[in-house]
From TrEMBL:
<protein>
    <submittedName>
        <fullName>Uncharacterized protein</fullName>
    </submittedName>
</protein>
Length: 136
């Protein structure tokens, strides 16, 4: 079972739709829980953040020296001819402004286009306005 699926399954009354954005699902979970009077915001938020990180690591690897994982990640952000070394991959990704929750959401759909932002400010506006905050 994937980490995000396991997190949402903990809330047995919640219907998790794996094809929707994790952030959309979490917001829906919070709304439904409030209506039920069955919600610990801090615990749920920490669990969600942990699940996001675990999902990223499961989908794209926690090993920063795994060349195959770098190639997978780069393909998901639209780089069709990735470099042949990890060092070159790291250089290539520097200066790219992408939302990591979007990247997690794209794990099951290699055709999903990941939006690239011109700078950190644009990425920040997008991230905060949509609640797509990835833990640091």
């Amino acid at each position: 079972m994937e980490p995000l699926q396991a997190f949402f399954r903990y809330y047995s009354w919640f219907n998790y739709f794996w094809w929707q954005s994790a952030s959309v699902q979490f917001n829906r979970l919070r709304e439904e829980a409030r209506r039920r009077g069955d919600y610990d915001n801090d615990t749920a938020w920490q669990g969600y953040r942990t699940a996001l990180v675990r999902q990223f690591n499961s989908s794209y690897s926690a090993d920063e020296n795994d060349l195959a994982a770098w190639h997978n990640l780069l393909r998901h952000i639209g780089i069709t001819d990735p470099p042949m070394t990890v060092a070159e991959c790291k250089i290539l990704i520097e200066g790219k402004f992408i939302n990591l929750v979007d990247l997690v959401d794209a794990r099951t759909d290699s055709n999903r286009v990941i939006r690239h932002f011109a700078n950190e400010v644009e990425l920040s506006v997008y991230t905060l306005s949509r609640g797509k905050v990835f833990p640091r």
